[in-house]
């Protein structure tokens, strides 16, 4: 489901003339909240290359004017702005910096927050990142209530429910427009399976369901045509997909988490949302959304996207006995992580 977007990125990088074609008039304003961070900078770079973006709005608590100035020298048709939180004033005023960043945005991508370090789980990030996401989504509710929100900030299993509760309190919640970005799990599964099969990753499409942390990530390898791994290989690939983030955290030895691959995944997700907004009727990608597929109130599964966000939360088909074992093990943890987010937003 991501091979088309991947090819578009390659074409864009090698043929700048496309940015000055008629497709530019269909561009949208995209805001990146946390644009100066480890994910935000490469994500903003990739979005600057997209012909579907007419204005790239960068926001962070530090560094965004410099990031925006740097990006503005790239010869593509989109404009770039960089906003910081507004300075205090008297009488007290709201944050005009984030208002400028968000007003008119069609899509808001939120990678803001602190990264994982060795030994940390995504849940360890909760106390810091939960507050950050809550504040940013409150601003989204005020200044771009109709935008599609793409939540990257971990732990996604909790931050998406936080966002939903904030939007409900503001009276602007639309489940079609709130998504947790689980695309990196799909990218990892595609990469690992393609290597195992000796295929090009663009020719592999693994459905990954559940959540976006550890055992809540469930790749459905049984649905990959022609893939018949041994029990040992299937177990290894499943666990590597679930804990691929730990692999990167350890390899970076305290210097960060998965930033470049997450930026690429966030770009792919956003690009497909924008294509659907522009009328493409073939956009199906996995996302963590409000769902009735299981007894968990949020669940990641294939979703069809249209001009107004998610148009259909699709089923995930038949799963193997092995995958059902993981499903049974995963759901209690997923529901607890979702409830943790709900409780935080309502405390």
TrEMBL record:
GO terms for cellular component: cytoplasm. Its EC number is 1.1.1.37. Keywords: NAD, Oxidoreductase, Tricarboxylic acid cycle. This is Malate dehydrogenase. It comes from Nitzschia inconspicua. GO terms for biological process: malate metabolic process; tricarboxylic acid cycle. One of its GO terms (molecular function) is L-malate dehydrogenase (NAD+) activity. It comes from the Eukaryota. PROSITE patterns: MDH (PS00068). Residues 182-344 form the Lactate/malate dehydrogenase C-terminal domain.
